[in-house]
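Key idea: predict the complex, not the pieces.
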Amino acid sequence: MNDAPILLAEDNPDDVLLTRRAFSKNGFENRIIAVPDGEACLAALLPAVGPALNPALVLLDINLPKIGGLDVLGRLRADPRTRTVPVVILTTSREQRDVIEGYRLGANSYVCKPVSFTAFVAVVRTLATYWLRVNEPRPDSGAAP
Amino acid sequence: MRQRPGTNPTPTGLRSVLTPTALAAAAAILVCLLDLSLGLATTDSPLATSPLLGLPPLVEVILLGAVGVLALVSAARSRVAQVRAETARLRADEDSQRLLQVIDNTSAVIYMRDRDGRYLLVNRRYEELFGVKREEIVGMSDFDLFPPAAAAEFRANDLKALARGAAIQFEETAPQEDGPHAYITVKYPITDAAGDHYAICGISTDITDLKRAEAEAKSLNAGLEARVRERTAELEASTRELDAFAYSVSHDLRAPLRAVAGFSELLLEDYAAGLDDTGRDYLGRVVAATSRMSRLIDDLLALSRATRVELSWRPVDLTAIAQRVLADLRATDSGRDRPIELIVEQGLRATGDPALLELALQNLIGNAWKFTAKQDKALIHVGADQLPDGARAFFVRDTGAGFDMRYADKLFIPFQRLHSREDFAGSGIGLAIVGRIIARHGGRIWAEGHPERGAVFRFVLPERPPEPAHPGGGAR
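Result:
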């Protein structure tokens, strides 16, 4: 299993806590690094100095303070260091324009955050099993499954 | 017919008959007769000389008789000529009298000017308007009557009509006591026997009121257009606001709701042991309420989207959509154990926005599904039939709880529920969404129902898009 962290860019502390719980309910403990705005998200992934965070997955809320989620996505895709990092957009509505714009900017997927926590746990399960396994070393490379 | 003036034969008629020629003729005949009687009385021979002229009486009689007859014929001839001339003159007078009456009794201004612009004739309306008598105006020109600019304009138009040799229509403005008046004027040259244009005639109709009305209509129209532009801008602005509002509702209301629901569910899941039954019941109610509110927000957003989304017109297979919706309902409502018969007619085709029409059918069929849940032998029938006016109406019929027709007008209004939430769940927005979608297509929808005997919802869709709707079209 990929040990790299998950970067969660989310300004709502309730959502951060619920997302952490949803991941832990699925057996992914202590893997989430949360940043409260777009600027902090870019600073973590594309620092001017120092080592960059290399997450297995970026969960990007669309409505972020300072620099919006879609702007962050555009900048990530414009930089060679983060061009291929998996980004899943988090939305609160099924507004087509956000989803379409997100895909246009290079998002890998999107999740409409359900109100029901149980549903959210299920969504996270799907997300984690796919995106965290995609980057796993192949079994024939000798790594343990 | 009335006696024409001047045709009375007496005494004028008698006088005109007693001309000198006629008197001479009469005298000659009288003398002739006298001569004859005298001659015949005084002599036995017809060849003896008469006492009057010294000629034999017979010759005298013949001579005088001839003179008399000639004089009579001549008198009669001259009388005939005289009567003819008089009749012609009278007729001419009469014609011009009649014409004068005609031109004096019209509301148009009529005038005749010679080639040099000097007045020959004006009608009574002209006299009244410009305060001149027709006897006085003869020989005057417009330069004696009007300000130079107006007079020059009239003169120029006169000359144009003269030059053209035919009628021309002009719009002219004449200064009057109560201000300038607008006229529509026809000017045409008058021709003499030789074919020369010796005068110009003008007929001017006052169109001041018409012009004023036209100007008012123009300014009203301009005002109306400005208002429409204003309202359109307002509508666009409010559509944008609605859009922003819907977005913020979806985002900002959901976030706290997610927290309430999420932590309540976490409490129930992870901390249920610390709560008694009542506490768990309360928490369960919180979770259920958040779920309803979430549904409500979803429906409000759908209603807003149905109002503002741009329609794309394409052929839509309603049969396929209805089958898909029913299959989804069967799959997601696996708890439903009572038998239900589903009929979807083949070939239900329409033109419209596929996504919106699917949303409409989802709501209509979803309703039918919901309201038949308590029936032992339910039927949902999706089909089409012909209305008396020839239009094709699609329908969704069910044998469910139905409704009281007294409340039929409330069906398509948001948040108006005809059944209690305990009996049938729902946000009360579903049919409002359907109504909005059908209205945006330019169609119509209505429902018939009876309590506990089912309901049928019918809708008609136009075959092609309605006239371009203004922004926010369909919003009521």
